């Protein structure tokens, strides 16, 4: 699959392929980065196209990706893009949001941190600050939430998303970030 261009993901209907093929596509897209003459990997995929792909995927496909080695590449890419989708405002004291995404292949939890400064957003793959808010959810739920394919209120009410700390900060995240939609 070395000739695979990650931008082709936008044209794929996940419902027409198997779970293994879906996982293989995202793995191939993530491996393009760093290859001689390769594209930027998942960075080359338009956020709206990625949102569409996730929204059309079956639950078993999302679970397979989030329990595979490509999970870390997908999570890193999504968190890297948080800064691009941040609605910057006036400089103000930072607010820190910790994300705990469960369902790692080894049974563990991936932890990330967003530091919102008002005028900018930093995404860290290593937790460095105390959290104002901690958001906990499973891998497939994280993909659906961050791609605009799930409603956070519904996820919270059904127990698929849990929040500790400042509930008000968690409640306004959709207003702080421009969430790509399909």
UniProtKB/TrEMBL annotation:
Domain called SCP2: residue spans: 95-177
Source species, domain of life: Bacteria
UniProt name for this protein: SCP2 domain-containing protein
């Amino acid at each position: 699959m070395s000739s695979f261009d990650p931008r082709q993901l936008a044209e794929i209907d996940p419902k027409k392929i198997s779970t293994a093929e879906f996982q293989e596509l995202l793995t191939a897209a993530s491996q393009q980065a760093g290859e001689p003459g390769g594209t930027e990997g998942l960075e080359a995929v338009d956020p709206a196209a990625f949102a569409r792909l996730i929204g059309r995927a079956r639950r078993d496909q999302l679970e397979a990706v989030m329990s595979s080695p490509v999970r870390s590449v997908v999570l890193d890419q999504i968190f890297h893009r948080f800064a691009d989708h941040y609605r910057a405002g006036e400089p103000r004291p930072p607010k820190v949001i910790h994300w705990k995404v469960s369902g790692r292949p080894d049974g563990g939890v991936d932890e990330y941190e967003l530091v919102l400064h008002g005028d900018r957003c930093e995404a860290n793959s290593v937790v460095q600050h105390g959290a104002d808010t901690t958001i906990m959810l499973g891998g497939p739920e994280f993909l659906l939430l961050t791609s605009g394919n799930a409603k956070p209120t519904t996820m919270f009410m059904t127990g698929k998303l849990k929040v500790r700390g400042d509930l008000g900060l968690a409640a306004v995240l959709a207003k702080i970030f421009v969430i790509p939609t399909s």
